[in-house]
């Protein structure tokens, strides 16, 4: 399996389901079925999940949870995890995660102008210029996909419920894609990005959906060529 995440097993898991976060093991045996992020958590049982944990959770999420043991550090892998966590904190300090509402308002206006343009072409323009309406509609859908993405990441209002309704509006109503299906797949995509099991398939569902360009056939096809290209370039 090729997986670019640090994962190490230092504690015998027995019947308990344990996850390591920031140097501590947490017992999630009774919580796992109620996890708000869904079943993706199962993939990290017995592993160090510090970096994915930081990516998906508020810093206060573990405040009321008692760790059951300290992690025995695997220095090489832990360095990767630590670097990732530090990078995330640095982005936070730089303010990259702050929502720029002015920017989103402009984007919203442009997006609905595209829908208006589409309607204008369809209703008031004769063929063959009506085709421009299709282009405007494609651009509108594409931008709805973008809003869906940010809403499902809780990036818009930071209120999980409200963002999820905004996601339903843009994804399900405007774009025609189930927002919860997309959200589920997208969480796996972020947690197991580029994780590939060549004999079976991708772990990352968004690398094999036939609707996306990254068809599963393409990855083994491009990978050796990319490697050759990169090695030629770097020698
Ligand atoms: C000690 C283990 C964990 C606990 C106690 C935990 C708890 C929670 C809680 C309480 C939430 C709600 C949001 C929040 O309060 O931050 C959440 C959301 C989530 N968790 Fe976990 N979690 C754990 C591990 C994981 C792991 C290993 C993953 C792997 C990817 C994961 C993925 C997610 C996702 C995708 C969400 C939804 C985030 C969103 O809506 O934007 N969690 N988790």
TrEMBL record:
What SMART domains does the record tag this protein with?
Answer: Cyt-b5
The UniProt entry, under InterPro entries, shows: Cyt_B5-like_heme/steroid-bd (IPR001199), Cyt_B5-like_heme/steroid_sf (IPR036400), Cyt_B5_heme-BS (IPR018506), FA_desaturase_dom (IPR005804), Fatty_acid_desaturase (IPR012171)
Sorted alphabetically, the Gene Ontology cellular component annotations on this record are: membrane
Q: Which PROSITE patterns match?
A: CYTOCHROME_B5_1 (PS00191), CYTOCHROME_B5_2 (PS50255)
Q: Which domain of life is it from?
A: Eukaryota
Classification via SUPFAM superfamilies = Cytochrome b5-like heme/steroid binding domain
The family database entries (Pfam families) matched by this protein are listed as:
Cyt-b5, FA_desaturase
Q: Transmembrane segments in this chain: where?
A: 101-124, 164-182
Heme as UniProt keyword: yes
**Keywords recorded for this protein, A-Z:** Heme, Iron, Membrane, Metal-binding, Transmembrane, Transmembrane helix
This entry's Gene Ontology molecular function terms read: heme binding; metal ion binding; oxidoreductase activity, acting on paired donors, with oxidation of a pair of donors resulting in the reduction of molecular oxygen to two molecules of water
Q: Which residue intervals define the domain Cytochrome b5 heme-binding in the entry? A: 1-81
Would you identify the family this protein belongs to, as annotated? Belongs to the cytochrome b5 family.
Q: What is the protein name stated in its UniProt record?
A: FADS3
Source organism: Bugula neritina (Brown bryozoan)
